[in-house]
Queue: 2 jobs
Job 1
Amino acid sequence: MPLFKNGRFVDDPWLFLADGEPLPGEGMVVVSLARLLGSEAPALADRDGWLGVSLAPAEPVEKLRPWLPRLALVALAFPVFTDGRPFSTARLLRERYGFTGEIRAVGQVLVDQYPFMVRSGFDAFAVPRGSELRGWQERARPHLVYQPDGRGEAPSIWRLRHPDPGPASPRGIPRMTTA
Amino acid sequence: MYRYDDRDAEFVRERIARFRDQVQRRLRGELGEEEFRPWRLMNGVYLQLHAYMLRVAIPYGTLSAVQLRRLADIAERYDRGYGHFTTRQNIQFNWPRLVDIPDILEQLAEVEMHAIQTSGNCIRNITCDPWAGVAADEIEDPRPWCELLRQWSSDHQEFTFLPRKFKVAVSGGRRDRAAVRIHDIGLRLRHDDEGRTGFEVMVGGGLGRTPILAKTIREWIPGEELLSYLTAILRVYNRYGRRDNKYKARIKILVHELGTEEFRRQVEAEYTAGRRPELARLTVAEIARIRPFFAPPDYADRSPGTDPCAKHAAADDAAFRRWLSVNTAAHRRPDHAIVEISLKPPGGVPGNMTAAQMRLVATLAERCSHGEIRVTAEQNLVLPHVARADLHTVWETLDTAGLATPNLGHLSDIVACPGLDFCALATARSIPVAQAIGRRFADLDRQYEIGPLKLKMSGCINACGHHHVAHIGILGLEKRGRESYQITLGGSGGDEAAIGRVLGPGFAAEEIVDAVERVITTYLTNRRDPRETFLDYLRRVGFQPFKDALYAPV
């Protein structure tokens, strides 16, 4: 599956393991959450080589917390592109848990969703087979937004308007006075 | 009024460019309808029964004369010479061609308008009190906050693919004129003891097939924390709202299934963990920037001793007097008035307005309302700043265009969705029924005798016509291939919000007007005295007299 990262298509060094597939002795592997938390957990923890996990939309990211220092990739699945749960998951990983590894969108990943995904914290995109790859190179770029939540990829209008937005802890907003 | 800066304008232009690209890919067949649908919806484009429909946002219901004139141009060029105002401070144009829509959006952008998020499973157009900034009972003008929310919710990276649509309303009056309790989030602006601005937060209201009133989950959140708090609510909803059944996907079902207390606990936990000081700092700065846009206009002193209206009112000008007492309201300045423009002429289509009428109102607004117009959830317009000295002229001008029907808040001020004549979801017609009721009760003296009455009708269970919160609600369904109209009684919006109850089996299209007539006759015959309103009477005696009148064996 073509992998889009940092504005271009790159080779994918990761091996996504199905649940029944045996764990290879070395190499970069991605396992399901069930497998990560199951009987193989000690083997996965001790194993040499980078480890990743894939999460279905309903699987709570909170369960990953003890594993995060050990993980280099979290793949968030979009079984259908209209299921917006992974956007929240990605933001929690980046903004609350400080995860700095790769967050990859897999499944029904559309180029039109790229700006929303990047701003939520995704930085790798498994583009479904049959997608027009040229379209990704042309269209996958962030644009001007209001929300100040992005990690710098998309310019926030509010940040541009208020480069020095005042004291760190505001003392509240006084009532509006009208003459 | 708020004015775009270069960045707001660039944001809208860039968004149109993206949509133009999506439309072209759709037309070339590179995007299937399935993949195209969310993008067209988020840009206000519906695929209706006969054609596309474009829903344009009128953020928090505030419109300039220049903008209204542009809407007239679009109505003429792309629709059939009129537009339809909805119950959510939007205007809809029927019949545009998909290929033309990016051009229409550019013409709207020239006057700082857009159709962003007027549909789709995202945060919809933010609505508010149509009398914001002028109501005599106002705590504070909520529109700076609505504008903040408009910006914050536009292209939100996390909340654009929610389980279902998401509606937010804000009210700044002592009385709630924004029907906040029938919204996914309802906000009521309040001051704390130190004079700081904040909000009571209500969650989980909505109509549709499961009508529920929103519950308060926070008595007061300081203004600077509003966006962090809303983020917490939306995040809990985005993560845990149901996605297995579209009829159970609204936040009201999540609140109901978890229970209000558990929902509140989850939101508070998320809020505490996710509070963003930067968001608070930017809110303070942005509110300070936005507020001056909503400063009151430069009212000239128009009270030269006597009230010039009194002269006309005292004269034998019964028509003007009627209009004055029914279609105007108290302004915060005693020498001014709020003028309601009825879009409900006898036999007319509720909420429809021709291009010529739009231009007339635009010109009138420039002359007599500081260039400003408001749009209401009851499908009427408002001139918010009319000097009392100008009221007679304003009335005369409106009357020449059929816009002075003095029926505000009365029976023929009917709210109705487009129904089966246009809508792909509808199960029955609403427009012809509304027209027939309007004609039957056209007599104004009879309407005044009946007193304040809200009649609303929806052409399907989705309840766009808000029939659940009408004193008399009509719901059009389809029963064995025929239209069937159910009557609900006792609903109410605003402060005394209540969901109406279904009275009994439905009526055929040719029976429904008579059925409404029997409901009215029952009330008129049995009320204690003329001061007992329909709703008071119903609350006193209950449903039985109405059931007897409608269903008793002859």
Job 2
Amino acid sequence: MLYTLLIDPFTLGFMRRALAGCLALSLAAPPLGVFLTIRRMSLTADVLQHGILPGVAIGAIFGGLSIWWMGAGGLLAGVVVAVLAAAISRATEGREDSGFAGVYLLALAAGVALATRQRGIDLAHLLFGSVLAVDNAALVLMASVASLALIGLALIWRGLVLESLDPLFLRAIGQGRAGVAFHAFFMLLVVLCVVGGFAALGTLMSVGLMMLPAIAARHWSARLSGQVGASVVIALASSTLGLLLSFHANLPAGPAILLVAGGVWLASVAFGPEESVRARIAMRSRD
Amino acid sequence: MVGCVVGAVSLVLHDVACRHRHKLVIEGVSATFGPGLSAIAGANGAGKTTLLRAIAGLHPLASGRVAGNENPALLGFLPQRTDIDRRFPLSCRDFAALGTWSRTGAVSAIPVAESERIAAAFIRMGIADLADRPIARLSSGQFQRLMFARLIVQDTPIMLLDEPFTAVDAATESVLIDQLLAWRDEGRVVVAVLHDHDMIRAFFPHTLLLGRGPAEFGASGGVLAVEHRFPRSAA
């Protein structure tokens, strides 16, 4: 019974490919999400995931349904939107939400319009992902993106910590330009991971595997390393259970994985050891 | 132990002017900060923080020049506490370790000598037992001691401090003053923005006083006495 429920689905090739791809992304994306949440850039991630859609659609128009063309289009659009978002943040001095809303609504509308014009694109698959879409090429894309993101993050880790925590310190020791470079490289890694996830998870859900485990992890540790570790564990579990849910309940992969991750987040808000509802009640009853 | 004796370094300000939000807040400031303790004093809005940031290379000069601040790796800068995100999930030890940046860079491991330097700085600041605590769980006094520990780890010949004693408890204040005196004895240039004139008279031989009139620079006793006369002559 348990075997049928948990193991049987993964005897199928397409489920194994989807699992491998999602586990790879689960290693790389959530640590980036932890930095995004710490830097209060969760909204930026939202803008990015909508922003890549027109790029993916344009890629499909030029190169057909090739994952590499769609990925390249998405990457290019993601970089453009990331730069645009940074410009909006700077121009509005942090009051960026309305500018961001404008960008992502426009990008979503343009993306959907472009994708519907293109024959052969299943809009629902593009937006919400499909397990069946993870062919060998998509798996290679996901694995490459995950590897690049992990190595890249390792290289900029200390700089990113310092740049997030105390950018003034970097400027004071004459490393202000390096700080900007760390930030730009970090955003590039975020875009890469969002693009890497779109085949399996869909463009609208791809950021979810990055953000939901990250915001859940805040309730499990007060340390950066602890939060990063917790976010990866949550993402790995959500990917596995989510794909099973997708298989048994016949749901698209993206929403299924995010439902599990979202459930973990809610449970963490309620019961996690750090800044959770339970921790607050315990603290109040101690006073 | 920390404590390299630093050679003859000094900061020289020549006729410096700075704008803050397009308004000229500092004008015609000349001063020489040599080894030892110097204060920058003046009323709120007189441009003390702006000037300190200008010396640190963080704020452009409208005119004039500063000599002695050319190499940012030789400058230690203590900002006002509000500039740092205290909720960042980092331990005190890791926070202080960022002070080694000029020597260790972005990727290489922190050498043993640096770890020992960090441990020694924590002992001097009396926060050795807090090394593993997240910075979010420090009192404001403890956090200021940690900021000083990072400066000790940076080990720079010039220290620029923006209101180092604001909102710290008395015990912390005396630990920090001891550190300033240690830096003085090691021959470092220490320039602090301060409000408390009694504190300045007690520990800082030289003061740069900013105000509505021309800036005054000289022995603290004389400069601060001028300020008491100033409002009357302006009225």
